[in-house]
Amino acid sequence: MRTVQTTLELLAWFAILAGIVLIFVGFFMRVSSLAGDTEQKTDSKGVILLGPIPIVWGYGRTGWAVAFVVAIVLFGVLLLTLG
Description:
Layout: H1 2-34, E1 46-50, E2 53-57, H2 60-82
Antiparallel strand pairs: 1-2
């Protein structure tokens, strides 16, 4: 049982380390692309599920509707598995 816990701890530390490395790589890629004289347009899109409530930005009405349906389905699955 101890080896499973040790393996999971090792995987968790690896995931944390990989996340930190990816943040630094993204930061340096962004800084190096800003050093050039070319103009770039950035666009932000995302979905956050806070429980059964979806927060959607950048997708318009269609994205909101899709996120709402996905949130309802996920909430239903949660109720079925916990109930």
